[in-house]
Amino acid sequence: MDGQFIIEEELKKLPDSPGVYIMRNARDEILYVGKAVNLKNRMRQYFQSTRNKSPKIVRMVSQIDHFEYIVTDSELEALVLESNLIKENRPKYNTMLKDDKTYPYIRVTLEEMYPRIIMVRSMKKDGSKYYGPYPTAGAVHDMIELTRKLYKIRSCSRRLDGSPSGGRPCLNYHIGQCDAPCRGCTDPEAYRERVRKAVSFLDGNTEEEIRILTEKMQQASEEMRFEEAAETRDLIESIRVVTERQKITVSDGDDRDVIALAADMQKEGNASLSETEAVAQVYFVRGGKLIGREHFFLTAEDAKNPAEILRSFLLQYYAGTPFIPRELMLESEVPDRELLEEWLSKRRGGKVSIRVPKRGMKEKLVEMAKENAENALSRDRERMQREERRTSGAVREIRELLGVACADRMEAYDISNISGFESVGSMVVYDRGRPKRTDYRKFRIRTVTGPDDYASMREVLTRRFRRAEEGDQGFSALPDLILMDGGRGQVHIAEQVLEELDLKIPVAGMVKDDYHRTRGLWYAEKEIPVSRQSEGFKLITRIQDEAHRFAIEYHRLLRSKGQVRSVLDDIDGIGSARRKGLLRAFGSTEAVRNASVEELAQAPAMNRRAAEQVWQYFHGESSS
Q1: Cα 240 to chain centroid, rounded
Q2: Last residue of some domain: 560, 586, 602?
Q3: 576 shares a domain with 532
């Protein structure tokens, strides 16, 4: 194996199943997320003749380096998962809705004395029971209307406490579709019994109602009442669409990881030895929505129990990941479950539960993870091994090269400016060899005038780690290794900042040659050469390029928005008039920074309060 992802070969391994596919470029960035009724047929279409393809698709396909996919049980599940992944990752070639439209849910307001059945666009922890999300609002409306008619559920939005309200009942009461609880015409317990039947109906126990409607449709058709028969047929179809069981969204809204394992015994080479190959599939459910997954290729030196392999994976994975959810859902029990829960709870700083669901949507979600793990192991063993080498394997190479204890989370920093004008800093994060863009941060330099990269880097690092010290959640996860875009000088700056803040984090510099190409690492006061053919070297190059790209992109954004006029624009309470007054009075931003509060207050359009705002912005402390 040469480690190359051969698209033609990978297309042959695709299953004839519904699912979601994810297109990535050489930097592992997501280009496009799509759904398919048949993954094999849909994916092949992208790589066939460019005839009849739009320029946008041709451009996207030319950038595809590799792809991955998630198998689902139905097209509906694929549709909802596609929506979640697009909103989470915002891929370059997907069409993004400006209003961020969401899929509809059915809500049963069980917290009310007389519950209602309504359509909503989001779930909340409010005591209600939710169903969905569903692909179309039309089917949801039909289902709600049918359920209300079948079980005489009220449709009004009145707040009812059991006492009769004034006025007459609405039209639904007079046509026999509501028992007017607003007028006290029905007992609360009798009403809730009808609600329980409606909930059972929405849970999918629809056979009896579908049988009755089917008979009604056939009778209408035999009597040549074709319009009525068509309406009944559409109602039956709406029931089937809305009650189709899907597991991409869980109604409790919690954060959890869903983990399944597929293992395969390999007995090649020395027959006296056996090696277990396995794939661990981790699904990330955040806020009740499945937003992504990761898979990990594992090997065990001996034929172990799958439960033991799973336990070992949990220990290794959660020892390094910065976020631990409230719940882990596994396919089977693991040894030392209570000890694992105690250890995870201490790491999280709150209770963590390990559960093995036996029924319902949660069990189905675990089954889906298991199916994808088995699919990856049987069809994609080579691809998984390549992915492991270029991510976790590359991290392992860097860790061994530097002799550090851990390098799972790496943060890289870079400075960008034009002749020192409007300097900006970038921080990019790689977690186990993959970019973690939600943790990227950008900094607009406040205290440095002119092209002084060392001083700018000192400011960026100081602000980053002080924010962590102050408990800012956006900066709370500390790196295992810091990578600086440069050699000895940049490394020394970082080490000085860490020493001042009493932090012990290893720092290495990404050294470039005269042609601005990555050459090696500067660590422990010496340059360490890195083989250009190694995966570790390729990962270092990707990280360095990404840090540079992110800084340049931010700098370009500021210029395009016309925001490079002055750092004073970032100060609360300083508008155009005060900015002009300060620059007219002091001549430069540097002179403004060095002025006292009293001097600043004398500038045109300024007052004492505004002067203190400016002084605190530059000095980060009280002026008194």
Answers
A1: 31
A2: 560
A3: no
DSSP, res 249: B
Q: Is the whole model's pTM more than 0.70, yes or no?
A: no
Cα–Cα distance, 166 to 180 (Å, whole number): 12
The packing angle between helices 394-402 and 535-560, to 10°, is 100
Q: Indicate whether 307 and 272 sit together in one domain.
A: yes
What are the structure tokens assigned to 623, written together? 């002026």
Q: If residue 354 lies in a helix (H) or strand (E), which one and from where to where?
A: strand 353-355
Q: Amino acid identity of 38? A: N
Note whether 545 and 465 are same-domain residues: yes
For residue 385, being part of any structural domain is answered with no
589: confidence class by pLDDT, cuts 50, 70, 90:
confident
> For residue range 89-104, what is the model confidence (pLDDT) as tens digits?
788 887 654 434 456 7
Say if residue 348 is in the same domain as residue 408: no
pLDDT at 425 over 90: no
Per-residue pLDDT of 260-301, as tens digits, reads 888 775 544 433 334 557 788 888 887 777 777 777 777 654
Q: Is the peptide bond before 15 cis (omega within 30 degrees of 0)?
A: no
Answer whether residue 97 is part of any domain.
Answer: no
Indicate whether 274 and 228 sit together in one domain.
Answer: no
Total domains present in the chain? 5
Residue entry with tokens 């660590």: 523
State the residue range of the domain holding 271.
Answer: 256-379
- Do the domain assignments include residue 28? yes
> What CATH number should be reported for the domain holding residue 353?
3.30.420
* pLDDT at residue 540 is higher than 90: yes
Same domain for 76 and 135: no
DSSP assignment of 15-75:
-SS-EEEEEE-TT--EEEEEEESSHHHHHHHHTS--TT--HHHHHHHHH--EEEEEE-SSH
SS3 content of the chain, % helix, strand, coil (to 5): 45, 20, 35
Distance of CA 193 to the CA centre of its chain: 40
pLDDT of residue 218: 92
Alpha carbon distances (Å) from 145 to 74, 155, 160, 178, 227 = 25, 9, 21, 12, 18
With tokens 């969905």, the residue in question is 132
Distance CA 392, CA 324 (A): 19
- What integer pLDDT is reported at residue 90 of this predicted model? 80
Q: Do 554 and 574 fall within a single domain?
A: no
Of 513, 542, 560, the residue that ends a domain is 560
pLDDT, position 99? 39
The reply to whether 556 and 572 lie within a common domain is: no
CA distance 48 to 206: 44
Q: Are strands 409-418 and 353-355 parallel, antiparallel or unpaired?
A: unpaired
Which of 546, 544, 552 is CA-nearest to residue 511?
A: 544
Residue 268 has a pLDDT of: 42
Q: Is residue 615 part of a domain?
A: yes
Q: Which of 202-211, 468-477, 502-511 is predicted with the least confidence, judged by mean pLDDT? A: 202-211
